[in-house]
Amino acid sequence: MLDELHRYLVNEFRGGRNVVIIIDEAQNMPVDTLENLRMLSNIETSKEKLIQIVFSAQPEFEKTLNLHELKQLKQRVSVKAVISPLDPASGVAYIRSRLTKAAVVDSVPFTAAALKDIVRIAQGIPRIINILCDNCLINAYGCGEKVVSAAMVRSVAREFGIKGCQSFGLAIAAAVVALFAVCGLSFYQFPHSIEPSRFSTAPVTKVVVAEKPVRPPVPQAYIERVVQRGDTLAKLVTQVYGRADKGTMLLVKKANPSITDENVIVEGGRLRFPKVVGP
């Protein structure tokens, strides 16, 4: 297998192409696997490296590299870059950019205060920003709201146990992702913050609404269905509502607390499908 890999790498090199292995979440890799990757880095010609390895990891990966058994691997790290959390302006620009990519150009489904709270609570970390935005939109749909308020953001954050910091400076001081390049990868400089202009955003209409507390939807009536052989929750939801998106599935699951796994429903059981209007 190594001979075959070597032939492939040589052919790519002769064709003027670089072979790069990119490993995400490298902090979860066993030490033995990391050592085997170091052995791969030995594949080379008399003048050039034939393979480059890039590790993308959380900051704790540096502790792993400091282990004695990985001393040789650490010595081969030629480039290290740290990506810091987004600052408040960049975080809001990031959300607007994602909305634009999703074809949301006429209006922003978040109040200005909600956008600021999302970035603050997420401490500028894109992954947590994504989680908050996604679940806020689902919550708004379930409550019949067209715009996510700051109160709703805080409610969702509490539900997921996400605690933001009051001072954004504390977040900027924490590194989010570390990139380690092995075997002579060209140097890339990662900015500590990203200017809002770096994101391409289409013109949007500013939406200003009064903040109001998040209230649960008001059920007007229930449609009951008996689960038949071959039924799935998604199938029944589609029959009742004509769709089975995340928001609709969430409404039905809330109306039926016995459903712990949407892929498992009991034949002969009765399910309630609420007709819901906004508060």
Automatic annotation (TrEMBL):
Gene3D superfamilies: LysM domain (3.10.350.10)
InterPro entries, sorted: AAA_22, ExeA_AAA_ATPase_DNA-bind, LysM_dom_sf, P-loop_NTPase
Domain of life assignment: Bacteria
Residue ranges annotated for the ORC1/DEAH AAA+ ATPase domain, each copy included: 3-65
Name under which the protein is recorded: ORC1/DEAH AAA+ ATPase domain-containing protein
Keyword annotations: Membrane, Transmembrane, Transmembrane helix
UniProt KW Cell cycle keyword: no
Single annotated GO MF: ATP hydrolysis activity
Source species taxonomy: Bacteria, Pseudomonadati, Thermodesulfobacteriota, Desulfuromonadia, Geobacterales
Residue ranges crossing the lipid bilayer per the database entry: 168-188
Pfam families per UniProt: AAA_22 (PF13401)
Keyword Membrane carried by entry: yes
